[in-house]
Amino acid sequence: MVLSKNSGGHRGMQESMYSVIALVFILVACVELCDAAAAIDVYRLIQYDMSGSAYGSRFAVLNHHAASLHFPPGADLSRAVLIIPLRELNITFVREYINQKKPLGGLLFLLPDIFSFENGGNKQVHEKEKLKNLLAELEQLLIHANIPYPVYFAFENDEIDTVLADIKKNDAIGQPATATTGGYKLVIPTPEPKKVASPTITNIQGWLSGLKVDGDTNQLPTIAIVASYDTFGAAPALSVGSDSNGSGVVALLEIARLFSLLYSNPKTRGRYNLLFGLTSGGPYNYNGTQKWLRSFDQRLRESIDYAICLNSIGSWDNELWIHVSKPPENAYIKQIFEGFSNVAEELHIKVGLKHKKINISDPRVAWEHEQFSRLRVTAATLSEISTAPELLQGTGGLFDSRQFVNETAITRGVKLVAESLARHIYGHQGKNVQIFADGGSLAVNPAYIQSWLDLLSQTPRVAPFLSKNDPFVMALQKELADHTDEVNMQHEVLEGVFTFYDSTSARLNIYQVASVTFDLLLLLVLGSYLIVLFSFLVITTRGLDDLISLFRRPPSRKVKTA
Length: 562
Description:
Blueprint: H1 2-29, E1 34-44, E2 47-50, E3 53-57, E4 62-67, E5 80-85, H2 91-99, E6 106-111, H3 125-143, E7 146-147, E8 151-155, H4 158-172, E9 183-188, E10 200-208, E11 222-228, H5 242-263, E12 273-279, H6 287-294, H7 298-303, E13 304-311, E14 319-324, H8 331-346, E15 350-355, H9 369-373, E16 379-383, H10 407-426, H11 446-456, H12 471-483, E17 486-493, E18 498-500, E19 505-513, H13 516-542, H14 544-551, H15 557-561
Parallel strand pairs: 3-7, 4-5, 5-6, 6-8, 11-12, 11-13, 13-16, 14-15
Antiparallel strand pairs: 1-8, 1-19, 2-3, 2-18, 4-9, 9-19, 10-12, 10-17, 14-16
Helix pairs in contact: 1-13, 5-10, 5-11, 5-12, 8-10, 10-11, 13-14
């Protein structure tokens, strides 16, 4: 009985001891006491390879303390994430850090709400333009650099502004956030990015058949109206490209709607076929346009009288440019330019002509019409941009948001193109005839333009992240089907020198972390309290001898046997 009693006593002691140990482990696990200060959506800088060279942000996981631009001189930023509002951005400082590969834990850029999908903000026009130009410069710096740490974008809000104000205050007094001092910690527990396997591009083609006279065996000539709909930018999840090339897509859809009304009546159907093309792969040397054109049979290709490509026509004031590859003296080019110039004069618009000779051996394709020119098809691009953009420049980046696009400019562009095409089709060149006059049944519809522009301005369209059955792609196909006789979709693999990586957006958790000194002090106080409490309970329930026996060396096996 005594043995049983002692055994039960020891078992009770052990259970009490185990309970205390468990409490200590829980306490240690919770040493880094923190409060969740904020949780916000963030958008990662694009990660891609071009011709085997790495570009963009090469990492996605974030777990570092936060810092501001007010950090003290000589501060170690190798384990810190710099939070930089765009309005406070020093582009020289960022360029120096990136180009000199200075150690940094990460970058978080805060964008004003004028660049968000939902809110346009109330900034003055000059301030908007200043921020737009600054963001464009930052974007070009980031997408052409190899950055060995996570880079994210987020939109300003009250939560992040409060956190940043607190971080600035601590940095200004020489107490930046560290493991020793505590502060704010930024955590993004996301998987490391993986390559996007076989990214697809989708071209959408609509066809309006012209009127053919009985007995006429000759194929009708064709006019092609084309616009590239995908984008490329520093943050794929934010690259909506309202102007480049959302404006061109909207214009094409409205032109298709207008001519579908004309062609629905045999009496007003022209003796030209109209081919509408919404192409993908635009930022990558118009890869999709090339594949689309090569899918044509020779007869169709030879029937194309000319093609007009629409690119960035949503933020111009009074002048547009027609870009061509053939010399301005070419008879077909002269005819196209004169047709547009006559209509432009009546609409009080200036139209200029820009000639850029192409080099067949050069893989760089600056304008969409150049893909037609390479196949000896007469073509031109209508754009507000006067000079050919560089690769991955002006392709619908972060700064290309709804606030910088004017639907009135698109309406005027639609009218210019539609009237010029109609006069060519119906033989009214040189005549002051307005087929799409305001107030008539064939008038350009501003509400239609605005609704589609709003949709495009809320839809990121970076091709590698758009599946062939993406709702937006299907919406384009359905809309073109409503205005044309026949619609086809072409799915191709994006080929070329580009490789893309996923993980384009995440959720950032911001924690307010206590300092290590506070943690150790807290652990010491609570640990001491638990030891005193345990000792008190043992003494009051079992006596002092039992407490001492816990720390007494147990008898050896030899003694027990004796």
